[in-house]
Design goal:
The chain is mainly alpha-helical. It is built from seven helices and no strands. The model has no long low-confidence stretch (mean pLDDT 92).
Length: 163
């Protein structure tokens, strides 16, 4: 899982594109890990919650930009890359619903701050695309390493939040 995430991070940061096959592989590895830890029913239920949350977010984003532009838009043409959407669709197969939402929000804030800092340091850039999936994958690697060394912190379960 960590190797796949690191590969996504590398590809997106270097090439601003990720080979599409990485995302189904990541989803499958994440699902198998979750299945081994929590069982089939909880793995499916948690993935359904995460995907549903993502779909609502994409619907809100699509509605906003369609209203703003006064025409129906395609989010993946100008606003989001397919890799970003596929990455966000793959990670609910491992993360619990609350952890998914927390990761989603915190990682978007972190990517925004990173982008602002890099833009201020570099000035105008030739490539205006933000490597969202790559930066989120890198952040998820760091969070998973914390999960590995801290027995109370569990990405696949929300029970650590109730302490």
């Amino acid at each position: 899982m960590l190797l796949c995430l690191a590969f996504i991070c590398y590809q997106d940061l270097v090439y601003r594109a990720v080979y599409w096959l990485c995302f189904p592989v990541l989803a499958a590895v994440m699902f198998m890990s979750k299945y081994n830890l929590k069982g089939l029913q909880e793995a499916f239920i948690n993935a359904t919650y995460g995907i549903s949350f993502l779909m609502v977010q994409l619907l809100i984003l699509w509605s906003y930009f369609s209203i703003k532009n006064k025409k129906v838009i395609n989010l993946t043409n100008d606003y989001l890359g397919w890799g970003d959407v596929l990455f966000l669709a793959a990670i609910p197969f491992y993360l619990s619903p609350v952890n998914y939402i927390l990761f989603y929000v915190i990682s978007l804030i972190a990517v925004l701050l990173y982008t602002i800092v890099v833009a201020s340091l570099k000035g105008k850039t030739n490539n205006p695309h933000i490597p969202l999936a790559g930066l989120q994958a890198g952040l998820l690697v760091l969070v998973m390493l914390v999960d590995f060394v801290s027995p109370k912190f569990m990405l696949y379960d929300d029970s650590w939040l109730y302490f």
